[in-house]
From TrEMBL:
<dbReference type="Pfam" id="PF10134">
    <property type="entry name" value="RPA"/>
</dbReference>
<dbReference type="InterPro" id="IPR018777">
    <property type="entry name" value="Replication_initiator_prot_A"/>
</dbReference>
<protein>
    <submittedName>
        <fullName>Replication initiator protein A</fullName>
    </submittedName>
</protein>
């Protein structure tokens, strides 16, 4: 679990998942299976999806959930067993959804579809390290465990803790490095699920298969084949693809992602061409959040990321926060203006001679005269002090998940979180006891004692 619902979003997406598009790019469907064929380089691939019993194939909002799960897996350090620990509220926030009963129910249904649907991919799954195409068969979510207020009804609420295990094939793809940047801040602000799904498909298609570090200026596809990639049931009618994607195209053009969309040819030979805006810069969500906390807008943040290295910007914000917190720097106008001046003139803002914060080896920033030391936290338990109970609880669950992921289930973690929120548990004390139990090889005893305290 991350520190707070909005923090530490990963700016990465898996290219196998996003290129093949496992989610139907429609807001509503009535089908329980689909099957498409396509071409990758000189080979034909085939993908089939079969929904679970009494369920529908993943679609619409499920795109947001699948992207958030990949992001969480990476943000949590790609755990070997693939198990992601989060809360329903955190996952809703990462999806860009409102925190209310409707979306708790939508998230529940989405996770159910992603757990029950089975994907079979013949010849289209990329084994990037070996530069070959392979087969894959999996459920997007291998295992789903969650706490609920009523075991019979199985509803999600603000207390729900989730343990989600991603498919082994997806984990292997991510760990192999077959990934690309994903501007999650941009995606969640798009109005319709259909537009968000198309954006994710396009953003994957614009990267060269054999060289995923190189973005393309444009892509061109047969309209019917593109409809298959978006999983639009066209029955061989190219106009159906044009009609279905018209509104998403308009929004992506207005938002500055696409320069234009053009069609050529007629009937089954009709083609679609996407020209991308060349100066579009993906926003790193972590950097964007740190900048926005100091009053810098998304537009200005995007320009800063275009002009400067990520490490340089993060070090600038670290330095600025430390100087303001210790009153070595007094902000006379706005925090945004002061931080912008520091970024432009880093040499004018040295750390005071004493005391200095702990440092690590300096990283040379891009386009900056000098490098700056990053701040590190000396006391591992200080992170629980001076923060809200919600944040302390989230940090504690993250800490426990490192060494106790196989011993504590979702229900246990729900109770731990609630104990911190109502004051019956002190997060720092529990974290300290947990670490001591690991050192003394008494993890089972710690878990038993903790369950006893929770009663």
């Amino acid at each position: 679990m991350t520190d707070s619902p909005s923090s530490h979003r990963s700016a990465i997406d898996d290219l196998n998942v996003s290129r093949l598009n496992l989610i139907v790019a429609l807001d509503k469907v009535d089908s329980q299976q689909w099957s498409v064929e396509g071409h990758l380089e000189d080979r034909v691939f085939r993908i089939t999806c079969k929904a679970g019993v009494d369920n529908l194939v993943p679609h619409g909002l499920d795109n947001d959930v699948s992207a958030a799960l990949v992001n969480l897996y990476i943000a949590q350090g790609c755990p070997e067993d693939g198990a992601i620990l989060t809360s329903a509220t955190e996952l809703l926030t990462m999806c860009g959804w409102s925190i209310n009963g409707y979306y708790y129910a939508a998230l529940n249904a989405s996770l159910d579809r992603l757990s029950s649907a089975k994907y079979t991919i013949s010849g289209g799954w990329r084994d990037h390290p070996n530069r070959r195409w392979t087969h894959a068969s999996f459920h997007f979510i291998e295992r789903l465990e969650f706490s609920t207020p009523d075991k019979e009804v199985r509803l999600f609420d603000t207390r729900t803790i989730l343990k989600v295990t991603l498919a082994q094939d997806i984990r292997a793809s991510v760990n192999s490095g077959y990934v690309k940047p994903l501007d999650t801040d941009f995606m969640v602000k798009l109005n319709r699920p259909r537009t968000r799904a198309l954006y994710r498909i396009l953003d994957a298609a614009r990267y060269d298969i054999n060289n995923p570090d190189v973005p393309l200026a444009f892509i061109e596809r047969n309209v019917l084949e593109w409809g298959d990639q978006c999983k639009i049931n066209t029955n061989g009618r190219a106009w159906q693809v044009v009609k279905t994607l018209a509104a998403p195209h308009d929004e992506l053009i207005k938002r500055g992602y696409l320069r234009e969309v053009t069609y050529s040819g007629r009937g089954k030979d009709q083609r679609i061409r996407y020209d991308f805006v060349q100066d579009y810069v993906p926003v790193d969500p972590v950097v964007s959040r740190r900048l926005s906390e100091n009053g810098i807008t998304t537009g200005v943040a995007r320009k800063l990321m275009k002009d400067h290295d990520r490490a340089f910007l993060m070090e600038c914000v670290d330095r600025f926060d430390w100087l303001v917190r210790t009153q070595a720097l007094v902000v006379k106008k706005s925090r945004a203006a002061a931080l912008m001046h520091l970024i432009a003139h880093p040499d004018d803002y040295p750390y005071p001679a004493a005391p200095k914060p702990a440092t690590i080896a300096p990283i040379k920033p891009a386009r900056a005269a000098t490098s700056m030391p990053a701040l590190i936290e000396v006391d591992p338990y200080a992170q629980y002090e001076g923060v809200s109970a919600e944040t302390a609880a989230a940090r504690l669950l993250t800490s426990l998940n490192v060494h106790y992921r196989k011993l504590l289930n979702a229900g246990d973690l729900d109770m731990v979180r609630q104990g911190v929120l109502d004051g019956t548990l002190q997060a720092a004390d529990v974290a300290r006891e947990a670490v001591e139990a690991v050192v003394q090889m008494k993890r089972e005893a710690f878990v038993a004692a903790l369950r006893s305290r929770l009663g």
